[in-house]
Amino acid sequence: MPMKIRDSLSEIQRKYGVHNTTLVHWMKMVDKYGVEGLKGTSHNKTYTKEMKLVAISDYLSGNYSQRDVIEKHGISSTSVLRKWMKDYNGHREIKGQPEGMSRSMTKGRKTTWQKRIEIVQDALANHRIIIKRR
Question: For a Cys staple, 48 with which of 55, 81, 83, 96, CB 3.0–4.6 Å?
Fold first, then answer.
């Protein structure tokens, strides 16, 4: 009986409908925090003005990619960092979000914790990429 050929990472992405950067991010979170790293939060994160400015500075230094900065500072996504960069480059004031204030997220796919675990386990069992450690 012939041996089953392992799925490529792109086949796993198509199988589950997950973008490649999302899948790699999830794999890094499992590598760093175990399956607990795949748990979503029940509320939107808040960030201080100082933390935003440090993250912006890290990215502008050229030493870090957007993905590196969000992982280093625990930022929820690259789109959050890009928004801060847009404000910074537009010479708008960078503000910290007051406690209790949050914005509703209206788009984006919600993936359960169990489904994320399943996807990452499949990817880890089948992928051929190496997750870089910093």
Answer: 96
